[in-house]
Design goal:
The protein is α+β, with helices and mostly antiparallel strands. It is built from 12 helices and 7 strands. It has one domain. The chain has a 7-stranded mixed sheet.
Length: 254
Amino acid sequence: MTNEENSLFSNSAGEIRDILGISTEPIAVYLLGPSDDFQPFASYRPLHGARYCQALMLARHGESVTLNGDGLACPAAAAAFGFRPLPEKLAGGEGLIGFGITREAIVGRTMFENMPHLDANSVSRLALCPLAVAPRLPDVVVVEGLPEQLMWLVLADLNRAGGERRRAHTAVLQATCVDATVVPHLERRLNFSLGCYGCRDATDIEPSETVVGFPGEALTDLVEWLRYLSEKAIPRSRAKNVNHQFFGKESKHV
């Protein structure tokens, strides 16, 4: 990696943190195929018996880690990344009844039938690290934070898209693996989610937090638009002057 690239990722991560006000790291995600060069990630800690959302959690807090199909504990995420097929009970929908997510197998079956996923064996390993220390342009960048903070990232993306309304793609299941990683990678667009049963059970994501993912090639444009929004829109909105004026008027009538 060149010094210029190193500076780009470090500066971009810093600007995302500072402008949005998030307290943890934006995450660089690499979907490594069988023929991809693994050398840049050789020093990363291999995880075993971990979920993808937990790998994101570790990277969010500063670690650099890898996961392969054998080390990935979540069967739904393993299917989403093309490591192995869904277990029969999950694919049939009965498994979600056991979790209390739905009471009809057909609902669970439909959720998984419509699950965006990578082709089988197209990815052999996942590598995750803080964006600030990314060795090259990530395939996907994932950001976790408060809805108000991530809202500005979605607005930056709307500006990048020339004003076209943004859309969310979710089943309130697999928020980090599918919604924030697979969908942005396959559809080459930002996607946002309210989180899901799994990541809220398995990680330290707060009830007040959620997640956004976008393809790595959008990084420079999104940071540029965040800079623009930080000049006026973000500080003015956060100042809540209109709200203060409203209650000031109300107090005069009390």
